[in-house]
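Entry for the shared binder. Reason: the reviewer on the internal report wants the predicted structure included alongside the sequence.
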Amino acid sequence: MTEELVALLLEKKMTVTTAESCTGGLIAATLISVPGVSACLNETLVTYANASKHKRLGVSEETLATYGAVSEQTAREMALGALAFADADISIVSTGIAGPDGGTKEKPVGLVYIGIGCRAQNKAYVSRHVFSGDRAAVRAQAVETAIANAVEVVKGV
C-alpha cells in the first residue's frame, strides 16, 4: 500500500509530510522505504510532547488542555498544522496510546487517532481506532491504517 501511495503522489505531483506522536517516525520510515519518495516527501516531524505539538504544528493549548493530546481535535489540528509547517499537499499524522500503560477507561491502550490533511480541500480527515496487541503491534497497525487512509484521500483529489 505504501508503494501505491507514493506512486499516486508522484503521479499527481503532490508532496507529503508526516507529524507523528505515538508512531514516533514509523510512518515516515515506511514512506522512506520506497525508492523515489524523495520527489514527494519534503520533511517530517515527531511531535511527541504537547509543547512540540503546540510550537511546531500550532495545536492550541486550549485544545490540549480540554481534549488532551489523544483526541480527534488534536489530530485535526496536527494534520492542518503539518500542512502549513511543511508547505505540503498531504499530511499524515498520528496521536495515541501505544502502551503498555497510560490508558484509561475513556482512552484505552491502543487508542490512536489518524489524521490526513489535504491542502486542496482545506480539510483534515480524522479516524479513531483501538488497536490490539503490544506496543509494537499498536504502532504497526497505526502505520498501516495511516497509509491506507492517505491513499483514499489522495485518490479523491
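Summary line for the report: The chain is about 45% helix and 20% strand.
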